Amino acid sequence: MSRNLLAWCLASLIALMASAPAAAQNLLDRIEHHEVSNDGVNIHYVTGGEGEVLLFVHGFPHFWYIWNEQMDALSDTYKTVAMDTRAANLSDQPDGVENYKLEYLMSDIDAVIEDLGVDQVTLVAHDWGGLVSWYYAMDERYRGKVQRLVMMNLTHPVTFARALAEGTDAQKEAVQYASDFQTPGLGPNIASFAERIAQSYADQGAGAVAFVQAGYARSDFEKLLNYYRANFDIYWGLDDAELPKLDIPVLQFHGLTDRVIDKDGLNRTWDHISSDYTLVTYPDAGHDVQREAADRVTAMMRAWLALH
Question: Phi and psi at residue 242, in whole multiples of 5°?
């Protein structure tokens, strides 16, 4: 394992283990499981509650359960929906790097929305789910289906690119992992890291640990790394491109101890949003802010959604 990959894994794990939110023990009994085919690739998702749809899109290397605390709390008012992105948990795992291009990842989100039978959703996204959701909300084919966007520790593609271009050597070193991930055969390293993540759910009980272990065991981490291989240039290699402005309300959370997505990428995000933009930062949280500051994130989401 390279030094940068090891540092990424250790930083993420330490941050996760520092959190000890109260978990809903009965969430798994209340959710319903669904599957939709997107041009032959089956995408699994879960639902709970009734009302306006909040569609949660996880990041790497997780699956839908990373949203369990938000789903449990907000399903009293909203229909909470969380998908497994392709190659994760119960979703299909197609062969070939080309099958993980942004175009397909966006169409997976769209397939879930279509299967739900609703006109619009609020997208709630993190990490790789965040990158896909930024682009989905900007794409002229899909943007009308997004009522609001809630983003967690994934800065806007253009502001990230600017921050990286102007960044220090240390900041550039911190994102070297994305280049390292281009090397085939790193899946087993991620699998061992995921097992340690699963143990961080011990505060939710042995059942939660076993459930997360099973979800990661079903995931194909080598294929999840194809997200980086198929789409490197739309984030880490992006020039100062012009992308469409978002004309929907955006709520952005950022854990400031994140060593993966630097906080400098938050600067001037407002230049790319023509509607209300709300930024919430937590100095004591890191990359997986929805777990590390779960109660605060959920409370802020509830208040913000009520206002927008």
Answer: -100, 120
**Residue 301: is it exposed, middle or buried by C-beta count within 10 angstroms (0-12/13-18/19+)?**
buried
Residue type, 204: Q
Q: How far apart are CA 92 and CA 241, in angstroms?
A: 33
Report the 10 Å Cβ neighbour count for 207.
Answer: 12
119 burial (CB, 10 Å; 0-12 / 13-18 / 19+) is exposed
pTM of the model: 0.91
Judged by average pLDDT, the poorest of 48-57, 116-125, 235-244 is 235-244
Q: Is the model's pLDDT at 251 over the cut of 60?
A: yes
The CATH class, in words, for 3-307 is: alpha beta
How is the beta sheet containing 79-83 ordered, strand by strand?
Answer: 32-38, 41-48, 79-83, 53-57, 121-126, 146-152, 250-255, 277-282
Place of tokens 């004309």: 247
Q: What is the amino acid identity at position 173? A: E
